[in-house]
């Protein structure tokens, strides 16, 4: 019998919007695959990141913040993605912000299953003015659920992340690795391109346009080191289209140019990017469009 058996398992990172789930995932796997933004609810898809070391393989499933209201079909699809990702995993990482536990956090906590380990991560400890506040806060939250472990971290400043990795490892099942070591994400470049452009739209105009905005990659052609990408930003109404395009097309140009730079950095080659804005009335309730976006 081998003394140290290899461990592999699925981990879901959950929490209300803006607690730092994407930042945590990025810093844990050290590659920008999930998109962060100061605006809430930018993560709409399920994204996997994989970390492999000598003893274990951690397969992360990043989820959108739990949706607490069913506004339309899209929200329902998002909710299903979240619930599925929670059901299939071995360990759940529940992220909250240091010093803050509000109604939204409570709603997420209520939906967590009680039949598998939930690790409480208290993020953004760097923002605490008074470090002594942390202990009573931990004691208060610890009473709400039977957490398998509690780890305070700063995802942004990479503080205590190795402690978190060890806590997760201790709850992973014994398994051989499921993925080849050099596989970092199961998402295609096409998907990542859409995510990068969507992130720019949210950053620039998130407050003026509701999140019923989506991005579709209509063409993705690789010619040697050059990628030719045609993207389409779908909106619900023509006034939203005008907002996104901006005066003399300036906003759209800025967003496309920032997205192109990020794509070039991520893909390691030149990108030729064309972006259109189209109005698709009621698209958020259109099943065929949802399917084309990757929701079943
Ligand atoms: N000071 C500080 N800021 C952080 C830390 N972690 C994340 N943030 C910031 O918090 C904001 C939200 O982070 P995200 O990673 O996008 O949060 P999220 O939970 O994935 O958000 P959604 O995608 O909306 O669900 C960003 O501006 C991050 O830079 C941290 O440890 N310290």
UniProtKB/TrEMBL annotation:
Signal peptide residues are none
Where does the record place the region G4? Answer: 123-126
Q: Please give the Gene Ontology molecular function terms for this protein.
A: GTP binding; GTPase activity; ribosomal small subunit binding; small ribosomal subunit rRNA binding
Provide the KH type-2 domain boundaries.
205-281
Query: InterPro entries attached here?
Result: G_ERA_dom, GTP-bd, GTPase_Era-like, KH_dom-like_a/b, KH_dom_type_2, KH_sf_prok-type, P-loop_NTPase, Small_GTP-bd
Q: Where is the Era-type G domain?
A: 7-174
> Which residues does GTP bind?
15-22, 62-66, 123-126
Which parts of this chain are annotated as the region G2? 41-45
SUPFAM superfamilies given in the database record? P-loop containing nucleoside triphosphate hydrolases, Prokaryotic type KH domain (KH-domain type II)
- Subcellular location as annotated: Cytoplasm; Cell membrane
Ranges for the region named G1 are 15-22
CDD domains for the chain: Era (cd04163), KH-II_Era (cd22534)
Nucleus in keyword set: no
Q: Which UniProt keywords apply?
A: Cell membrane, Cytoplasm, GTP-binding, Membrane, Nucleotide-binding, Ribosome biogenesis, RNA-binding, rRNA-binding
A biological-process GO annotation: ribosomal small subunit assembly
In the bilayer, the protein is annotated as:
Peripheral membrane protein
Give a Gene Ontology cellular component term annotated to this protein: cytosol
The UniProt annotation puts the region (G3) at 62-65
Region annotation (G5) ranges: 153-155
Q: How does it assemble?
A: Monomer.
Its family remark reads: Belongs to the TRAFAC class TrmE-Era-EngA-EngB-Septin-like GTPase superfamily. Era GTPase family.
Role of this protein: An essential GTPase that binds both GDP and GTP, with rapid nucleotide exchange. Plays a role in 16S rRNA processing and 30S ribosomal subunit biogenesis and possibly also in cell cycle regulation and energy metabolism.
Protein name according to UniProt: GTPase Era
């Amino acid at each position: 019998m081998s003394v140290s058996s290899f461990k592999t398992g699925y981990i879901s990172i959950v929490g209300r919007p803006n607690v730092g789930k994407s930042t945590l995932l990025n810093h844990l796997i050290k590659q920008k695959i999930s998109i962060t933004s100061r605006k809430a609810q930018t993560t709409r898809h399920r994204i996997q990141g994989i970390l492999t070391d000598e003893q274990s393989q951690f397969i992360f499933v990043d989820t959108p913040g739990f949706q607490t209201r069913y506004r339309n079909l899209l929200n329902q699809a998002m909710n299903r993605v979240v619930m599925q990702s929670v059901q299939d995993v071995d360990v759940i990482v529940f992220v909250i912000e240091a010093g803050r536990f509000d109604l939204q956090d409570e709603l997420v906590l209520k939906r967590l299953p009680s039949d598998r380990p939930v690790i409480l991560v208290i993020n953004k400890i760097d923002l605490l003015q008074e470090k002594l506040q942390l202990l009573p806060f931990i004691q208060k939250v610890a009473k709400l659920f039977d957490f398998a472990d509690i780890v305070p971290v700063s995802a942004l400043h990479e503080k205590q992340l190795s402690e978190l990795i060890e806590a997760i490892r201790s709850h992973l099942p014994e398994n051989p690795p499921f993925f080849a070591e050099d596989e970092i994400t199961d998402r295609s470049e096409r998907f990542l391109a859409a995510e990068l452009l969507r992130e720019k739209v949210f950053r620039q105009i998130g407050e003026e346009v509701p999140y019923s905005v989506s991005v579709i990659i209509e063409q993705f052609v690789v010619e040697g080191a050059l990628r030719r990408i045609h993207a389409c930003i779908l909106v619900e109404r023509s006034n939203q289209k005008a907002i996104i395009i901006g005066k003399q097309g300036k906003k759209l140009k800025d967003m496309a140019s920032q997205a192109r730079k990020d794509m070039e950095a991520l893909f390691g080659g030149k990108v030729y990017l064309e972006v259109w804005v189209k109005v698709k009335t009621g698209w958020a309730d259109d099943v065929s469009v949802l399917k084309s976006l990757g929701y079943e």
